[in-house]
Fold:
Amino acid sequence: MESGGELAWFRAELLRSILKPRAFARELVREHWGLEGVIAALLAGIGFSIGLDAVVILAKGISPVGFLGRILVEGFLLGIRLDITAAVLAVILFGALRLLRRDVTIDQSFTAVAFALTPLIVTPIAAIPALLDAGLLLVSGLMLGAIVLRVLVGLGLNLRSILPLPFAAVALLVLLVSGSLVLNDQVSRLRMTAYTMAPSLAPRLTAAPAQGKRYDVEGTGSLVVPADWTFSVRGIAGEVAHFETATATLNVVRGRVEPLNTLDRFADDLARGERLGFNAGRDERTIVRIGDALAIADRADGTYERRHIALSQFAIEQGASGFALQFRFFDPPDPDAAFAQAASIAVTVSAR
Structure:
């Protein structure tokens, strides 16, 4: 009976933290949660992971039902990770406030963080519109954004309940910076999901289109390559076209996009072989649009076996698959000019 009463109390507090954040925050100083905060953060991580994974998969035009087992496992793992993250953030918050000579306990710090995360429990609801109709993907994205915003509001309210306003503002800033560093991969997934849902957020790739011959490339689309680039098909796994000059190469490679991965992760996977042994002194990444397609544009200047090399890659996702243009310039006298030439070819891509 007592355990049932505890469970009912916890369920009520959980709902109150989601539906009535101001009322919950006012009780933060007087109540003691302890283990309940650990469970709250765990559930938040599970809910967030399931919801975000479902939206990522739906954005590819794939049903998440076939990946339910993997989604649940990933959810549990993120739940544990979010628990650890909440504890780390609570320690950081506690330490920062001690330096500011504020009398806040570690338990209050953890509870303020953990229960601010509880709106993430309902993240799977955000996937429902896109699950019912692919045309409602943007609605799912807006719901996802609203849930994340609600977490920030709850965190602010919880901190304000235990701290004066100036210190609460400092604490919020500390937590946001620390949290974005600790959960950098999840922040990146949210960002890329937003771009996938609304590609117009990304600027168009600006470059003077290359002049030359247009090639139709298997499974990707077409592109224009200057006349001095020699075309060949080398029969290398994953490579569908190869172009080269005396000082540069261009490989067009295809790959399968993992259902739970976003475009930036896909770009990393394709670039792994190209980057092997390469030491970058300069490494840049931007998100652009090429035509109507979203692309990850990477460029790096460095060395490979003590030779000056400039690399440029444009990765484009096409549902469950995708492709990339991989440029390699040997001993370029002007890396920026080399990158500009790569962009002039990439901007001519017409993806299918």
The chain has a mean pLDDT of 89. The radius of gyration is 24 Å. Strands lie at 213-217, 221-225, 230-232, 239-244, 248-256, 278-290, 293-304, 307-318, 321-330, 350-351. The first strand starts at residue 213 and ends at 217.
